[in-house]
Amino acid sequence: MLLRFGVSNYRSISDYQEVLLAASSSKEHQAQVISVKGLDAKILPAIGIYGANASGKSNVLQAFAFMRRMLLKSHANGSATGGIARTPFQLDPEVLKQPSHFDCDVLIDKVRYHYGFVVDDDRVREEWLYAYPSKHRQVWFHRQYNEEPTFYFGKFLKGKNKTIEALTRDNSLFLSAAAQNNHQQLSKIYRYFEENYFFRLNAEHGFEHFETSYLDNGMMKTPIIEFLKRADTGIIDARIENREIAVTDKSIIETIRYALEKGSDSQNANVNDTLRFGHQSIGGKEIFLKLGDESRGTLQLLTLLGPLFEALDNEKVIFIDELDTSMHSLLSLQLLKLLNSPTSNKGGAQLIFTTHDTNLLDGTVLRGDQIWFTEKDKKGATHLYPLTDIRTRNTDNFEKGYLQGHFGGIPFLGGLEVLFARS
Which of 153, 257, 276, 423 is 20 to 30 Å apart from 206, CA to CA? Predict the structure, then answer.
């Protein structure tokens, strides 16, 4: 479970910004916050980030994706001379030269961990991991670079720490190196980040983690097909053909990605023919269509439903950029209700998404602390803040207030007709 994360000097983010998933003391929709044994705070199952185009909404999600990618890949995929491929804030020459900071708090097996690192273009400047099995902090390790790298290992971190320290490159995270070298304690932290996150950071191609064929799983297929029926997609069933391709061992996302790129006319993808969706013909007979014959909106919805439904039972965290892409507001509303309901969200799933869909601000599905905004300052730097930072009343119409500019996070276009005025 993700409790918070923060970042500075990454893409459009200059000064330190953070996202908090701890619920505020608000009394609204109390049933939809997640109670966790051992935590004083209750946790939010979803937050939505609003803002004008190019205000930095997507960069907030990209920042956590970069942090996770560094953790998973920096040791195995890096090279001794490769440096670190970060993207610092570019509009201020002084900030451009400064390191980038990433940190987060997560809950793993009822224990809170605080992990973070600081990097520049060449090396890891700092890295740390603290555990909180009780209210007292345990320092597992702290790494720093001041002319020379130094490592401190706390008494609670067992294993061959010094051996792995010697194997850790300047541009590699120690946590990444430790997992690659089978460190028992740290491999558990690594696996949490590897297995419990799903990203869609590009509406067409941005899926990073989709490993199983949800439609070949009877437990998952039923709710997916039922949702597609209620969404009026015309789909009433799905089946997998051409079994010699072993669809269960492949990533369905490659199939869907191919269909999005090539459309239904392509004859070059055998895998494309293995997934078929049942529709009822005019005569009442069920006919099965190829994946590429389905609408783009149906494909987008399909690729979200599997990870979302799996997350509901498995405490996974999903990041979706532009939730409203190819999806009707009522569908987005129903997906959020599933996340917010303790009846359906038994596993403690979480969703962090960006959107322009103001219908979700009607007060029926999102609490004030679940609504966040991004806005750029005069220097072009992104600032991130929740609605609860702004004085409001429970009776306020949040959608109306947002569109009228009371909360920020919207474009101020003025009268565009003057651009086309004729003298």
Answer: 276
User: pLDDT at position 249, please?
Assistant: 44
Helix (H) or strand (E) holding 398: helix 398-403
The count of structural domains within the chain is 2
Question: How many H helices and E strands in the chain?
Answer: 10, 16
CA dist 133 → 130, 153, 302 (Å): 10, 17, 39
Over the stretch 364-393, which tens digit does the pLDDT of each residue have? 899 999 999 999 999 999 999 999 988 766
| Residue 267 predicted with pLDDT over 70 | no
- The residue-averaged pLDDT of 180-206 equals 88
**Cα–Cα distance for residue pair 411/402, rounded to 1 Å:** 11
70 contacts 375 by C-beta, under 8 angstroms: no
Query: Quick one: 294 and 371 in the same domain?
Result: no
31 Cβ contact list (under 8 Å, min separation 6): 342
Measure Cα distances from 147 to 52, 174, 362 in Å. Answer: 42, 18, 54
Q: How many other C-beta atoms lie within 10 A of the C-beta of residue 294? A: 23
Do 122 and 83 contact (CB within 8 A), yes or no?
yes
Residue 382 burial by Cβ neighbours in a 10 Å radius (0-12, 13-18, 19+)? buried
Q: How many Å is the Cα radius of gyration of the chain?
A: 23
User: The pTM is what?
Assistant: 0.86
Phi, psi of 330, rounded to the nearest 5 degrees: -65, -30
- Which among 274, 299, 324 is the end of a domain? 299
